[in-house]
Write the structure tokens for this entry.
Amino acid sequence: MKAVRRTTRSLPGLLFLALALALVALAAPAPRASAATGVSAVADALRKNPVYVDPAAATQLSTADADALARQIKDADKPLFVAVLPAGYPTKNLFTDLRTATGITGLYAVRLGDRFDARADSSVLPRTAVQNLVTSGQGESAKTQLTDFTDRALTNMGGKAPASWGGGSTGGSGVSGTALIAIGAVVVAGGAGAYALVRRNRRRHEEERRAALDRLRVVVDEDITAFGEELDRLDFHPAEPRADDAMRADYERALNAYDQAKSAMADARRPEDVRAVTQALEDGRFSLAQLAARREGRPLPERRPPCFFDPRHGPSVTDATWTPAGGAPREVPVCAADATRLADGRDPAVREVDTDYGRRPYWDAGPAYGPWAGGYFGGGILPGLLIGTALGGWMSAPAYAADYGTGYGDFGGFDTAGYQGGDVSGADFDPGDFGDFGGGGGDFGGGGGDSGDFGGGF
């Protein structure tokens, strides 16, 4: 009986001890994943915190340095995800699988052994910008490389930090059950408001894009009209005595280009749709140049971009040195008339458009003219032509990539899903933005990348 009484008296103490142990377990840091953690576990960690260091790579980046990096990213409120993994970590489809598992639109950087690479959704950072950031920090220690990359990326990237990061310590410590309940209540209460905010932002983006298209429509209609007048002045008849099959084919291509341009403009719903219009006009003008050469018995012209100063001048005939106000000299394609003007020290005949500040050259008129110029000049040549101009600056910014295409390199399509940096898109993203680590098919080699990869720096 005495033994029973001693046991009974000890029950409150045992209950207290059990409760204390439970509270300690809740407050204790979550156990770190094992070395070579699976992609799902890495993604789960990144959904909670912007920086993840695998236990097997702990010597690369200390806990204090990782916490400092995470605080910097959170303070900047940007969707930048950093993972430090061991050298032997599997690389095939690493970025694509990580982006799929995380499900959050953002910029993903991975330090793997002494190698480094990154990928991003195009609405956050254009692929050329990602590649430049990656290559600028090769050969550095993990701390220096990741710090420099983070500093530069946060300055250039768009989007907002994901809500799942929340607040609290960045060191990975747990939170109490009460805190979790409170956080859950806040999330539920704010869900409707957040949804309304997202809808409002998307409506605003759509209104801006419609306004940009309206501004473009005036300029493109002028272009189409000018090309139609060229066709009227041509005075070519397919049945005329000197006409041959090649001439008739040139003429037919020009007419088809005119019809395609009108049809594409009638169907345009977004600024980036204008690229198809100006591309058709550029094709049509080259066909007219070929036709003129055949009729006059001259050698056929080589395929060159249109005159940089005004594409309505037709295909360029040479390159000339031009210096924009406040910019550096560069070679631009010019028509014969503008080449003569420049050689004589005169100003070229520049295409000006209406803006809120009066008539301005198209390269100083706003980001909406990026797709317009892209159709005429193509993605490969245009960035070099526009460096140092207002349009060149807009086109290299994340906001331009989000609103008017996937970047200045290719003038790709707009993300119709409307996801911005930090949005939870799940698996709804462009896999072309995320390739194998290093862009070399998953083997860390090369680094040159291909059309589906950002390249690397390996």
Notes: The first strand starts at residue 51 and ends at 53.
